Amino acid sequence: MVTAGGAVARTDTHTSTRVTGITVYAAASLTGVFPKIDSGPKYSFGASSTLAAQITQGAPADVFASANTTIPAQLFAKGLVQKPVVFTRNRLVLVVPTSNPAGIHSVYDLKKPGVKLVIAAPAVPVGSYTLQVLRQMGLTSVLANVVSRESDVRSVLSKVALGEADAGFVYSTDAKTVPGKVRVFKIPAWAQPKVTYGMAIVSSSTNKAAAQRFIKEVLSKAGQKKMLAAGFLPIPKAKRGR
Amino acid sequence: MRKALLALLYFLATAVALAFLTLPMLAIFVHVPPGRLIDQLSNPVVTDALIVSFKTTLIAQALVLLFGTPTAYLLASRRFPGRSLCITLVELPLVLPPAVAGIGLLAAFGRFGLLGSSLGSAGITLPFTQSAVTIAVAFVASPLYVRQAIAAFEAIDPNLVAASRTLGAGPARTFFRVVLPLARGGLLAGEALAFARGLGEFGATIMFAGSLQKVTQTLPLAIYAEFEVNFDVTLAISALLVLISAALLISLKLTSLWQPSEQTSRSRFAPLSSS
């Protein structure tokens, strides 16, 4: 398996590797899985757009992992990160509270008047994916039912899990973190956006070697196994490496 | 020698404190040229947030004054069993982290909350509405006002109140013509703090009311939303809030200066008793 560094990685059968001394800024949807892959780094989870803004303002991150490839590409164009690499994929789903107060059974049901729909702000990756889905399905009128634009995907999930919102769009991996609190509805395959996660070493990092080791870990067989166990999708073979 | 050293330390400490407190505010204005600030004021995100902030804060403060003043007066003037408990309960939201306040409001007034379900059957849903913002603001701001009000009412000389009653004024007249004017300084100070706190409220609002432009997105929520989109707008809103807060503080100082003087010592011409 070829990794980001271009070298052949050892297939790690033991999982006790820990990279310490680095700070990883990662998308909120990676909150559960990244510490499982490596408990060593200091993690800061949040909306990819917020983290990118913080890095632009000089926040001390070593690795930046985003829920899309657009944001890392923007930062790369500004010279703030090194060349990004794809490390996983995900799926967008529609979630409703288990009690389903608004009786939603598909994305089309969101057109019902009075439905309290919560989505993420458009700058947040999951928010922009949501808008893509709605446009693909010709359902942009549904945006009139939006009652709140949250700052990250986990806030969308909490509002639905608490039963305050009638429906929300999150990643399938987020829905898995609150079993029993939400019901998940799939988005038709033809409308599903390409949700690809990109990761890069931050240019201002003072520990680039350790940052590179972390990226290698995530891309390794063991790392990818953990991602798949959490519900993420495998990287398409063509994209592996660069 | 020691005196000079001590004096130097005092001045040094003061200089550091002043610099630390003013630097962030000055830095905002250095980043935003006044021209750009005026430009951003026409940005719909800014104007919508301004309107939402002011509508909700004004209504919330009206509620705080309406309910807070009698509460403070009761707690200040009467002694009853459980008084200290009541005062602690009123002050509690003050030390509550705003996010916890938001969770509490959801637990109480949310769709499946304590009161929420009964409100729901009456057709009233609170989360995600502008009323939710008003409630969140009132919740975090009222302890600030009530605390100051209690202190202000406690500071009134009870002899003056007694004198007013002895001279024939009823309790209501005494309250409005004697107690309120005497307590005015403290009440205004409390209200200024409550107003500022309410205007800056973020955590409870975003939890309980969510964030939607024109409906629930207040100025602080707009700052948070625009931070990753357009840093210029963020700076402009921040500068606006600094100016509003400064104006608030200055007007408070001015009103405390403008007080009808209690002329008990200067001689005055008394009005003719009968004409």
Q: Which secondary structure elements does this structure contain, and how are they paired or packed?
A:
The complex is a heterodimer of chains A (242) and B (275).
Chain A: E1 23-27, H1 33-37, E2 42-46, H2 48-56, E3 63-66, H3 70-77, E4 85-90, E5 92-97, E6 117-120, H4 125-136, E7 146-150, H5 153-161, E8 167-171, H6 172-175, E9 182-186, E10 195-201, H7 208-219, H8 221-229
Parallel strand pairs in A: 1-2, 1-3, 6-7, 6-8
Antiparallel strand pairs in A: 3-10, 4-10, 5-8, 5-9
Chain B: H1 2-31, H2 34-40, H3 44-77, H4 83-95, H5 98-109, H6 116-121, H7 130-154, H8 158-166, H9 171-199, H10 203-208, H11 219-227, H12 231-257
Helix pairs in contact in B: 1-12, 2-12, 3-7, 3-9, 3-11, 4-7, 7-9, 8-9, 9-12, 11-12
Description:
- Chain A is built from 8 helices and 10 strands.
- By secondary structure, chain A is an alpha/beta fold.
- Chain A has 2 domains: 23-89 and 196-235, D-Maltodextrin-Binding Protein, domain 2, CATH 3.40.190; 92-186, Periplasmic binding protein-like II (D-Maltodextrin-Binding Protein, domain 2, 3-Layer(aba) Sandwich).
- Chain A has a 5-stranded mixed β-sheet with strand order 2-1-3-10-4, sandwiched between helices.
- In chain A, strand 1 (23-27), helix 1 (33-37) and strand 2 (42-46) form a beta-alpha-beta unit.
- The longest helix of chain A is centred in the middle third of the chain and has 12 residues, at 125-136.
- Chain A is elongated and about 55 Å long.
- The two termini of chain A are 12 Å apart.
- By secondary structure, chain B is mainly alpha-helical.
- Chain B is globular and about 65 Å long.
- Chain B has 12 helices and no strands.
- Chain B has a single domain, classed as MetI-like fold.
- The mean pLDDT of chain B is 88.
- Chains A and B meet through helix 2 and strand 7 of A and helix 11 of B.
